[in-house]
Amino acid sequence: MRKRISLFDIANVLLLGIFACCMLFPFIHMAAVSISSAEYVTSNRISFWPKGIHLDAYKSVLKDNRILLGYKNTLIYVTVGTTLSLIFTTLGAYALSRKVLVFGRTLMLLIVFTMLFSGGLIPNYLVVRSYGLLDTRWAIILPSLVSSYFLIIMRTFFQGIPSELEESGKIDGLSDLGNLWRIVLPLSKPVMMTIGLFYAVQVWSNFFSALIYIRDASLYPLQVTIRNIVLIGQVSDTTVTTAMGDKPIVLESLKYAVILVGTLPILLIYPFIQKHFVQGATLGSVKG
């Protein structure tokens, strides 16, 4: 039997289509400008489609050592930071999900308290400096290692796993860590993939911590490098720049090319874990 299409379905599809177009337009416009010829860019004649296609901006960006170094640093931060964040979040969430944990409720209240109140920028800076983390990679990774929000989501997910499975594991001689490794984690793939993506995006997009804690340019993540290049257009009135090399390039094309180079990699990861994303984001929020 054919499903009847209601007026609500039509309106819903149209509304979501409009929202999708509004969100995609900036990316399409940036891509069009970044590969268009200088005369069309400077005269502001680019909207959706590129005109006079050339790739000089991308060639300059990919040849620039600052971009390559920023990529290297960001990949290190994302890989190490996401891995450590998942490990510590998983261990903390599993411990807090056990009803036998002593002072478990008190610990949860303290964790929720940190979501409502924080020390602020200056105390955080003083803490990082007191541990000697300034101008090190750990200044980017450790201060945001565990998110209270993701910890609570994962804890709620673990609470939804039937306790009979873990009891059977203990009968077979498994310890708590054995239960976590052999029983709980294999069932937690959706929430692990989802929270791992959140952590990766958080680290990839983080430039504020680097601005505060890092002074060594060789440790700058990609986002800080992009910021420094984009700021060229805010402190200069020139239309054409040689900031990325000897060849003159339209500043607008250069800025958009740099932004897209820094944004596309993290967007390309999403389709590979899309099937786990919705399931993982909702399963962890069923229970309070």
TrEMBL record:
Transmembrane segments: 75-95, 107-126, 138-158, 191-214, 254-273
GO CC, alphabetical: plasma membrane
InterPro entries recorded: MetI-like, MetI-like_sf
Membrane topology: Multi-pass membrane protein
Coiled coil: none
Domain ABC transmembrane type-1 span(s) in chain numbering: 71-273
Key words of the record: Cell membrane, Membrane, Transmembrane, Transmembrane helix, Transport
Subcellular localization, as worded in the UniProt entry: Cell membrane
GO biological process, one term: transmembrane transport
Entry keyword annotation includes Transmembrane helix: yes
Pfam families: BPD_transp_1
Family: Belongs to the binding-protein-dependent transport system permease family.
PANTHER family (UniProt xref): ABC TRANSPORTER PERMEASE PROTEIN MG189-RELATED-RELATED (PTHR43744), POLYGALACTURONAN_RHAMNOGALACTURONAN TRANSPORT SYSTEM PERMEASE PROTEIN YTCP (PTHR43744:SF9)
Name of the featured protein: Sugar ABC transporter permease
